[in-house]
Every structure is written in C-alpha cells, then in structure tokens.
Amino acid sequence: MKTYLVFPPHWTATEPYLSCPTLTAFLRAHDRDVVQQDANIEFYRYVLSEDFLTRARDEVQERFDRLEAKETLTLDEQDRYQVYTQALLPADNAVANVEQSLADYKNPEKFYDLNEYYRMGRVHFAALKLLSALYHPSTFTFSEATSRYRFGSSLEVFHAVEDRNENMYIDFFEAHVLPKIEAYGPGILGLSISSPHQIIPAFTLATMVRRKLPDVHIVVGGGYYTRMLVSPDRLAALFDVIDSIVVYEGETALLRLVEELEGEGRLDRVPNLLWRDDDGAVRVNKPFHHERVDDLPAPTFDGFPLDLYLSQKLVIPYLTSRGCYWGKCAFCTSFETYKGGYRQRSIDLVMKDLEQLSRECGSNVFFFVDQATSPASLRRISGALLDSGAEYFWQTEARFERKLDLALLEQMHRSGCRKLLFGLESGHQRVLDLMEKGNRLEDTRRILEDCQRAKIGIHVFLICGFPTETEEEADASVEFVLGVDGLTASPGFTYHVHTFGLETDSRVGMNPERYGVTLHPMEEELDQFLHYHGYEVAQGMAPEMHERKLAEMQGRILQHVVFKDYPVHGPHNLLYLVHYGWKYPEPQDNVAQWKDLSYENLLAFVPVLADEVTVKEFKFFVPEEDGAPTQRPEQPIKLIGDRKLIQVGGHSYCYIGRTERSWLISQRGRALLDLCDGNRTVEQICLRYEQQHPSKMAFLQATNDMRVFIQRGALTKAGNQAS
Ligand code: SF4
To answer: Where are the alpha helices (DSSP H) in 589-654?
Structure first.
C-alpha cells in the first residue's frame, strides 16, 4: 500500500520541516512506497508569483473601485476600503518585483546586502498583504494565517473548508496537490499538523481528498493533536473527515498502520493511534511507543523542492536528540510531545547523517532543532566535528547552563557553531523562578558575554505577561537584554518577544491557582481549542495589556539591533554570520543624508520620486493601520468612524514602501510631486508651481513641502534610484 505524506501550509518559508522527511525515511527503510510533498513551500511559490499577484491586484482594484463609486460607506465597507487601500498602495511594487525578489534570495550579492535583503522582504510582505485583501477577512503573513473561522472549533473549521471566498487554499490544492495525490494513487494520506495555523488548510485538503478518493485512509499526525490527549473525546467530530490520528512519535505507528491496512485493518493494534470506533467513541491505543533514536534512519528531503525555500543556502534541519532533558518550564508543553525521555543519537550516527544530508541537500549549514541541546551534547558534537575536519556550520537551541563556559563556547565556534538560541523568557529572577526555568541571571549574563567573546550569535526568546508579572518586571527583561555588554549591537543578535499563551496541558494550565490564575470556562464550541484559555490573574498585568506591552518591549529592543529579521523570520542571521564572520556591512540609510539640507542645497536639488514610493488618490479617508510600525506620520490618517462615511474626495496618499510610512498630502503636494521628473531643480519646480497657482506664499509653501518630501525619503536625487 502506497503512502502520500503532505506538510500543509501554514509554516515558515525559510526551511523545510522535519516531520515528513523523518517518516518518509523510516517507511523507505522498511521497503514501503511513500512520497512526500511540502505543500507549504509550494503554496508560497504559488502566491508569490507575478501571475497570481496580477490577478489578485486587479480583483482587489475592481472591488476597491466599486466602493469608491459609492456616495457613502457602511462600517463593513469602511473596513474593506481600508484593507484594499493598504494592499493597493504597495501592490504595483509587489507585482513588478516579486519574481526578481525570489531569485534574489538565491543571489549572494543581493542576499548578503542588508539593503537588498530588507527590500526583498518588503516586496513579499506587500504581496502577502494583497493576498490577505483578496481573501479578506482572512489574513496571511510569514508566521500566521488567520480567518473569521476559529481553528479551535471543528464546526467552524468545517465551515471554513467550504468557503471559497475566504479560504485561500482551495484553489491551490485543486491545482497543485489533489492531482498529484490522485496520480500517485495512495492507500494512505498522511497530514502533518504541528501548528494551529495548519488546521484549516489540512482539513480543507482532507475534505477534498475524502470526496474525490473516498477509499484513501486519512491519518493526521504531529504535535498539535498529541497535546489534545488531555481530552481525546473532544476530537470526535474530526473523524467525520479523517480516519485516524497518530500521537507522539509517528515512525512505528505509521508503519504499523500501513501493515494493518494491507492486512486485517485492525486499528486497535496500531500503537499511538486515535480512532473512532463503531459506537462513536474515540479510542486511544496505549501503551505509547517511543522510538530508539539509534534505530532510525537519517531523514530524507527527497521530493521536497529544496531550491524554493526563501534562503540563499538551505539551512538543513536535523535532530541530534529527542525530548527535553529539563522538562520543567511551567509555560511549556513542547517537551510533552516526546514522552520517552531525553534520548541522544550516538555521535557516529550523527556524523554519518550530517555527511549524507550535506551531500544530498548541497549545503553545509545545519539547524539542530533539538528542544534543548545539553552542554554534554554540545561538547560531544563539537568535539566530533573538529575531529572529522568537516567544514559544517550550525546553530542550535540551548539552555543557560553554568557548564556553558568560554572554553566550551570557543570549541563550539571552532567546530562551526555560529549561533545559539536561548529561551531567556524573563530578565527578572522572581519571574524566572516562578516559571521554573532553573536559571540564575548572573550565569545568563556571563554566558551571553562569553558568547560575544567566542563570536557566537545569540537569539533570545522573551515572554511578556507570564502570570503575576508586573509591567516593571517586563521592563526588567528589556533592561536586562539592553544591559548585557555589546549584546544587542552585535551582528549575531536577534530576538523574539511573544505574549504568554496559557496552554491547557502546561503546568500553569494544570495548576492555575499556584500561579494566581482563574480560568474562564472553555466555550463548548471550541472543542479543538487547546491553547489559550480565557483567564484572569490575581496580580500583575492583565491579559488584555499584553499586546501593548509586547509592542513596547519589541520597539525598545529593536532600535538597538543591527540585523532586523523582519518580515521574514528564519535562520538568515546564521547565514550572514557564516558568510561574513563577526562583522558585516550595515544597511545604508539613504534618508539620513538629506536631513540637514541647507536652503541653497535644497533649491539646487534635482528630485525624483524614490523607489517604492506610491502616490495615489483616494476618495475616502483611510484609517491608520492596526499594528503599523511605531514611526507614524505626524498626521495619522483617521477613519471617520461613524455608521456612514461620507466622501471627502480628491485626497492623495504618499506611501513609502521602504519605511512603510504613508500620509495624506494636499493638492499642492500632489502637484509638486507630479513636477518631479528628474530634470528640474527644486527651485524650478517651486517657481513653476507659483506660476500655476499665484499667491504670496506659494513659493515658500512649496519649498517647505519639498523639504518634507525629501526628508521623509519620498524624493531622492535624480540618478540615485536603484537600477
Ligand atoms: S521551554 Fe525548552 S527547556 Fe523548558 S521545558 Fe520546554 S523544551 Fe525544555
């Protein structure tokens, strides 16, 4: 019986995920026919294309024009008007440059130039905005896909899979996944779900396959449903569409499933399987099976389009161990996805795997995606790499352990380690202790400083709003990070702050009173909802404050950081460190050089519209966008906000893609910009304007406007635009 494995959207686009490659290798090692498809990266390629974006822009423009033809807009129309406007402003740039930007990710000269790197990211960001507008109110970014349908409700998920207007995956699956599955003719379809953002796409595909190929056994696996084991009965509705769910590790379970379906079909004999029996009860097959990691083959990426990932070089994911040797952090449930304890693969096999993967994937850069690599493992791996003489580069996740001393860090650097990812979580000792992180901040500081000395880059994860955390304690996290000598300004520093998410099966979820938490009753409809309970806290920041505090924390750190891996997250900073070593050219701020423009220089300036600048007329006022960057124009654009919005007519926006800044400009501003053809000086432009609009103040007002346009980067010196 043949097996078809799919990794569905939505996941990061920078490197492949390991689940399907691990299962594929295992089934093949047992002589089974299996193919795998990374539908996630193929989906990105599908939407990040000139053809798709052209159609998207034209459709959004049409809808926008229909709204502009109206005299008034209802609240819902205002909402759409705003979304369409924000999507259309950078749309031409996205359409024109998307294909080139994809190619530029592979071009070292572009990828390793931060100005170019950020530009590529902006093009893709604008493209995803257009996609979101097309499927409004669904949204799509590089890290999240949301829709009006909550993934936590099976009822809503089943509605989402039928909604062609708002489900952006249906067309893609019909064109690029379903035909391949049909052509292969599998007996089993496996869908890997590790993130809640994959639930709607995965069940969309499952529903389509169920209708088209009703005899195919559909099995779902991955971390998300393993955590649902706290209440498996809540999964019952899913079995209307799928046949089974594999929890914990999937290799032996999937092989046994294949064997059973080839034979007697006794699902009760397949380890780690959840299924619905004839009486409608959800059955959980125990005891759970855990793999001996040395018995497993190396993963294979055969069948994945390795050249499509958004990265100059493929960063190969690899596991040197399974499980977390610490396993105590109160907010965490990741370690629960491996029940069999901390298991390290023997070093000889690790070295063999790395050699094989490097050869097969054409890259020598690895991300050891272990939950936490212990100091002993780091010593073992770096020692073996040095002995082998192989030139590999790598990063991994680690904990702030005292044993991580300078000598070990230097050995790791010599072996190719260029970056470590740490869950710092908090810069306040009381909060850390409550989280049961097991770290002392003085050790943490010493390790972060030693990493700088050893020239190993750092990524820190911070949590905002752990129960009882006060605003002052959250501020202490920022101050701790900023206070480590040279950390944020180092070329290898990246960070991520996220709000605390209360997971049902975490220690906080299991013992809420210990953390001063009162849980709201779970909405009955949210049968698949595992993660974020509504809750209240007895002390500290209330949950509704978290987003604001998060934005403040992000912003305070960001201004000190050299490598801003926005909007595409991933191991790109690692590649920069591999390429340049400890120093690389910082991006040039083309605006800064025009800030101190003297009056004489201003008049002699020959301006032209800068790259990524759009000037467009809108009939209605447009609200300031939610979650926009903190640097907003002095006069933010306001929504009138009443039940009806009246046309104001004839106002233009100037939008600068490079800074994502937009502001309302006057008719004078619009006229001046139209005169900036790259052949006239500012003086000539202002004189021309004065002739056309004679008044006492015309010349002065025009020069002031021109100064603002230049200082904000809307205009640049003729000849300065990118070719
Ligand atoms: S947060 Fe990391 S170190 Fe802590 S228990 Fe989870 S996986 Fe282990």
So the answer is: 599-604
Choose the residue to mutate in 328, 331, 368, 498 for probing ligand 1, maximizing ligand atoms within 8 Å of C-beta: 328
334 Cβ below 6 A of ligand 1 = yes
**Residue 627: exposed, middle, or buried by beta-carbon count in 10 A (0-12, 13-18, 19+)?**
exposed
By the 8 A CB rule, do 612 and 660 touch? no
pLDDT digits over 286-307, tens only? 999 999 999 999 999 999 999 9
CA 342, 346, 351, 352 torsion-angle sign: negative
Tokens of residue 640, six digits? 């009138």
* Closest ligand 1 atom number to CA of residue 332: 6
Cα(344)–Cα(346) distance, integer angstroms: 6
Q: In the chain, what are the domains? A: 3-275 (no CATH), 313-322+344-580 (3.80.30.20), 592-717 (3.90.930)
CB 465 within 8 A of CB 428: no
Cα–Cα distance list, 162 to 46, 206, 532 (Å): 21, 12, 26
Going from the Cα of 586 to the center of ligand 1, the distance in angstroms, rounded, reads 34
Chain centre to alpha carbon of residue 30? 35
> Pairing mode, if any, of strands 3-7 and 34-38?
parallel
Quick: pLDDT tens for 194-221: 889 999 999 999 999 999 999 999 999 9
CA distance 343 to 338: 10
The 3 state secondary structure assigned to 596-610 is CCCHHHHHHCCEEEC
Give yes or no for a cis peptide into 137 (omega within 30° of 0): yes
Closest CA to 315 of 13, 583, 37, 580: 13
Distance (Å) of CA 395 to CA 125, 386, 571, 640: 26, 15, 9, 50
How far, rounded to the nearest angstrom, does the alpha carbon of residue 235 sit from its chain's CA centroid? 27
What span, in angstroms and rounded, lies between the C-alpha atoms of 540 and 514? 14
**Nearest protein Cα to ligand 1, atom 5:** 327
Q: Which two tokens stand for residue 586?
A: 């910082």
Tokens of 457: 């880059």
pLDDT in tens, 68-93: 888 777 778 878 888 898 899 889 98
Q: What is the model's pTM? A: 0.90
Cα distance between residue 43 and residue 11, in whole Å: 10
